[in-house]
Amino acid sequence: MDTANLFEARDYEYLRAQQYGTTEKLNARVALHAKYSTSDLDWFQWLRAQIEWSNVESLLEVGCGTGEFWSESIIAMNANTSVVLTDLSPIMVTTALSKARRHVQRVHGLEADVQSLPFRDDAFDSVIANQVLYHAKDPAKALDEIHRVLKPGGVLAASTIGPDHLRELFDIESVAFGARRPRTHADVFGRVTGREVIDKTFENVRWLQFDDRLRCTDTDDVVEYLTSTPPGENATPKELQRLRTEIERRMNENQGTLEVSKDCGLFLANASE
Fold it and tell me: Domain containing 92: what range?
């Protein structure tokens, strides 16, 4: 498989060993949003606020990443709530657990694929899938598995992106590397494409939009973001120079600021009774 297309193809070995083999690349992407967001709430604060914690005694997070969701105490969550964190990458599980254990009394984690979850039927009150279902080889199969492990009436909180998400960054990428990505995450499981898939498995599906955009002022931060995934991940020195030049050109045209659109939010849905 062409290395430049691995990310779009959602190759699991690439995701486990290279993209998420360490926390560095994910941290670069999280950092850009955290530093330049214009929202009053950061993404994870907003996500936490969408969950009705009083009804949650057992919770599973699939694709937990570095555990940013658990980096703060959730006051509304019952102290006895049991939390399980899973990810394809054992490094991510370890990192997430170290954060969650500061704030959650009952938490453990394990390496697991969302398409084949190692849990009994009806095991959880709630499942969180934060920006993860577009990584699944078959999002419909992943949703079936999530539905299986949810109790009847249980809640899925599945965040994703829409077709306009970070469009200015993809424009810059296309200038630097000569072509647009043939497929984006929003095409796989996004605000538009994901609705039809999730409607087939879950009830009471509703979409909540997160109102935000980025105002970036440091070229290095944008370069670091765009080189955290292919094609930037494998950029030649000449391509890197084109990338930097294009970012600086756009910033100079807008008084030192790169405005970046965001199109993201959350599907909330119930498992059938």
Answer: 3-164+182-216+263-270
